[in-house]
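I hope you will forgive my troubling you with a question about protein structure. I set the record out below, with my sincere thanks for your time.
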Amino acid sequence: MTLLQLKYVVTVAEAGTISGAAKRLFIAQPSLTAAIKELEKELGIVLFTRTNKGILVSPEGEEFLGYARQVMEQTRLIEERYFGAAPVRHAFCVSTQHYSFAVEAFVALLQEQGGDAYDFRIRETKTYEILEDVAHLRSEVGVFYLNPFNETVIKKALRERELSFYPLFRARPHVFVGKENPLAKKDFVELADLLPYPRLSYEQGEHNSFYFSEEILSTLDAPKNIMVSDRATLFNLLIGLNGYTISSGVISEDLNGPNIRAVPLQVEDYMDIGYILQKRIVPSRLAEAYIESLKRYAIARS
């Protein structure tokens, strides 16, 4: 296995076709195909599945690509530092539940580490997909919570994927509501206060288990339920329908505006919000910088 082969694999995955990758690499298509097949034979796995419309990365290939991208990133850093190569186009990805402090940390990372060229990605996504993203190294860092209700199931999922969870802070339950909602004027709310209002939750797709819910107390019955997939829609519905969502209470007015209020919820529960990493991988420089940024904003907002 060579660095050139790793470059070939990464380029094929990015291009989506052998012909497209060959053009980017300025080599003949048969030569590229032969190099990929030789690497697959050496590794004993199938990296790509060929289809009439192009190629698809196999599950084994997804994992291998995670390692390959890290090696290529480190190689570019060495070339820049010691051989005067062109500045590195930094690459980093994080997958997270819908937390404003995680976005603030991402913004800070870009400002501090982005440089003149970069390819940074943040995925506010479903809990199961966060686990899968970090397990297959599509993202280096994942951000979500554990609590007494979900921790048995989530910790089992972490063990199966060889992931480690690192707590950042413990949050007490709050409800997010629009500033004009009558609940916004209370010092705290109880569960009975919520009954007249629509409950908003982030949908979890095919893995819509209570244990993967982004909101605590997901098993409690509510007469009015609305599922959404993104934060902007949820906040618009909080305001437009006088809805609520149960959350950590951590919110940034700079990012989310002044129209959302966090009100303490009187229940005996908590959320241990933290980040996950792949056990077998040493975090990259950018991952370490993002984690430090997470810690700063978590402390500031908690």
Remarks:
- The chain has a mean pLDDT of 86.
- The chain has three domains: 3-83, 90-168+272-301, 171-269.
- The CA atoms of residues 216 and 246 lie 7 Å apart.
